[in-house]
Amino acid sequence: MESQPVSPAINAAPATIVFDLDGTLIDTAEDLVASLNHTIAAADLAPLEAEDLSHLVGHGARVMIERAFSLRGRPILEDQFQPLLERFIEHYKDHMPGKSQTYPGLLDALDRLDKAGHRLAVCTNKMEGLARPLLDGIGLTRYFAAITGGDTFEVRKPDAAHLLGTITKAGGDPRRAIMIGDSRNDILVARNAGIASIAVPFGYSDVPVADLDPDMIIGHFDELTLELVEELLNKAG
């Protein structure tokens, strides 16, 4: 009897898919700018628009506060930071999730990856104490095996240890991992960790994401298929 050709086996080992938060999973710019404007009102600064700061989302509240003072032509003293930061955090926590919402197709993509047995995680420079209640409020926490923030470790993105530590917390293997993000820090941390990267163009990057040279760009989460994940891992492998 003539033998039948055997199809190449698909690597069944689960992958770890790590997502950035702001500008990747969730559109948070409007709420962050609202909290920033509440914060700088204490210093008698005029409010800013989302377009003034959207590219700074993901760098932390301190950078946003610094940028607000700079845009208004005012110096900021070191001893001003802590009370302003506390004011920002209090307002942001009290109003979350506010108007923040997931990007189109995200929930279907998370379901698809989760049902296939892949591990999911969040690696964000947002403080962990802000990231977790935001994810809770939008109903996403249940998807993630690990959630780490900019204060979870001694380092933060783009330091490779932040991403590698997140993968470890999720029980994953860096050799089968992908980082998905919208900005320079996300693509850099993946490169520094030797991990494949996917960029999304709908977030808060200050340059076109193609200029960051990710391994792949997807314009919608409908494109984040199981086949694409395996293709990218095999290519990076």
From TrEMBL:
Gene3D superfamilies per record: HAD superfamily/HAD-like, Putative phosphatase, domain 2
Function according to Swiss-Prot or TrEMBL: Specifically catalyzes the dephosphorylation of 2-phosphoglycolate. Is involved in the dissimilation of the intracellular 2-phosphoglycolate formed during the DNA repair of 3'-phosphoglycolate ends, a major class of DNA lesions induced by oxidative stress.
Entry's Gene Ontology cellular component terms: cytosol
Keywords, ordered alphabetically: Carbohydrate metabolism, Hydrolase, Magnesium, Metal-binding
Cofactor(s) this protein requires: Mg(2+)
Enzyme's top EC category: hydrolase
Keyword Repeat: no
Pfam families: HAD_2
Source taxon at top rank: Bacteria
Reaction equation(s) it catalyzes: 2-phosphoglycolate + H2O = glycolate + phosphate
GO MF term set: metal ion binding; phosphoglycolate phosphatase activity
Pathway the protein acts in: Organic acid metabolism; glycolate biosynthesis; glycolate from 2-phosphoglycolate: step 1/1
Catalytic center residues: 20 (nucleophile)
Identification of the protein by name: Phosphoglycolate phosphatase
Binding positions for Mg(2+) per the UniProt entry: 20, 22, 182
Family, as annotated: Belongs to the HAD-like hydrolase superfamily. CbbY/CbbZ/Gph/YieH family.
GO biological process, one term: carbohydrate metabolic process
EC number assigned by the record: 3.1.3.18
